[in-house]
Amino acid sequence: MEDEPLVAFALEDMLLDLGSRDVRLATTIADAMHLLDEYTPDFAVLDVNIRGERSYGVAAELRRREVPFIFATGYGDAEHPETLKAVPTVTKPYSPEDLKSALAIAAGLA
After folding, report:
1. Helix (H) and strand (E) counts for the chain?
2. Are residues 48 and 54 in contact, defined by beta-carbon separation less than 8 angstroms?
3. Does 110 have pLDDT greater than 80?
4. How many angstroms separate the CA atoms of 40 and 61, rounded?
């Protein structure tokens, strides 16, 4: 989930380069929740701040479904609620290596 089009397209390219076959983008919290009504992803990358709203509700739904996820933010992980402090967080701008490492940690592979 990413609300900045250029960042979203770059993220999509990075995920495809890392081997993802089905990348679905949401640009609002409502879009993400609607997407989750129809589809359960293998993993997710959540921008923390989406058009002024925090993505923590989406994170809660992903956690309920046991879907690994990471946060991407320009603010670091200092602002996460206590229940989400352990979620891997990449700070923008991030590299494909940063993304791969964080996703591996979220999936329990690292």
Report:
1. 4, 5
2. yes
3. no
4. 10
Taking the mean position of all CA atoms in its chain, how far away is CA 51?
15
The two three-digit tokens of residue 30, written as one number: 């409502």
Which amino acid, one-letter code, is at 105? I
Taking only the tens place, the pLDDT of each residue in 5-26 is 899 999 999 999 999 999 999 9
pTM: 0.92
HSE on the CB side for 62, CA within 13 Å?
24
Task: Give exposure, 14-38, as e/b (b: 16+ Cβ within 10 Å).
Answer: bbeeeeeeeeebbbebebbeebbee
